[in-house]
Amino acid sequence: MKWKQLLVGVMMILSATALVACGSSSTKKDNSLKKIQDKGTLTVALNPEFAPFEFKTLVNGKDTIVGADVELAKEIGKELGVKVKFSSMSFDNVLASVQSGKSDIAISGISVTKERQKVYDFSDDYYESVNVVLIRKSEADKYTSTSSFKNKQIAVQKGTIQETIAKNQLKGSKVLTLTQNGEMINELKSGKVDAVVLEEPIAKGYAEKNSDLTIAKKVTLKSSDADAYAIAMTKGSTSLKKKINKVIKKLKDSGKIDEYVQRAYEQSIKD
Ligand code: ARG
């Protein structure tokens, strides 16, 4: 009896020690928040040709990156008590920049997909949108369904979910992958491509600024993955993610995110 009690006691002590050991090693490993706070700077990777989320505009005569994602990043900087530095690059480099440690996080209208979740941690969603097809207004009657794009040239931005959406849903079309959104729009306007796949707020902005372009209203695309935007960070960034989610919740609950998007949209179509 005594031996049995002793054995149970020893086992309890052992498992408690193991738990403590686990706890301390995992907090030691997750220095995602501390690292940024020690540096005093949060480096954010983005591709600023994605109005209303991130785009360049002249502010007091100076080329400045603005948009809803920029506002969101600034709020995160405030919560963390650090400065925010924006690092511009093409979209297909945005996630890699987080992976290599050059940037702390990526905020770039990034859709959460299962594939991306295998490699990165994502914050809670902060915005939802659908995908649409942008076409020349003069051809609006031609496109009545996704099958109207057979043998047509479709442009999509490199590294985006629109690559897969165009390939899978606009059957029989030829998909051209370009690095810059501005280039896709120019190719569409000049007739080199017939359509561009984009998320709705972005397409709406281009249609508003280019009277020769419009959204194909009868064409509905399904979203293969979640059509929600979230912030990407390296795997295991638990402490950082917690802080970021706190900011997202606050801004979503107060309607601020929608306000940022609306304000940035108006600013972008004025330029
Ligand atoms: N939401 C799409 C994706 O995650 C497109 C994002 C493009 N963003 C940008 N800043 N160009 O693949």
From TrEMBL:
Which keywords appear in this protein's UniProt record, sorted alphabetically?
Answer: Signal
Residues spanning the signal sequence:
1-20
Q: Where do the Solute-binding protein family 3/N-terminal domain residues begin and end?
A: 41-264
Name the Pfam families for this protein: SBP_bac_3
Ionotropic glutamate receptor C-terminal domain: residues covered: 41-267
Query: SUPFAM superfamilies, alphabetically?
Result: Periplasmic binding protein-like II
Full protein name: Transporter substrate-binding domain-containing protein
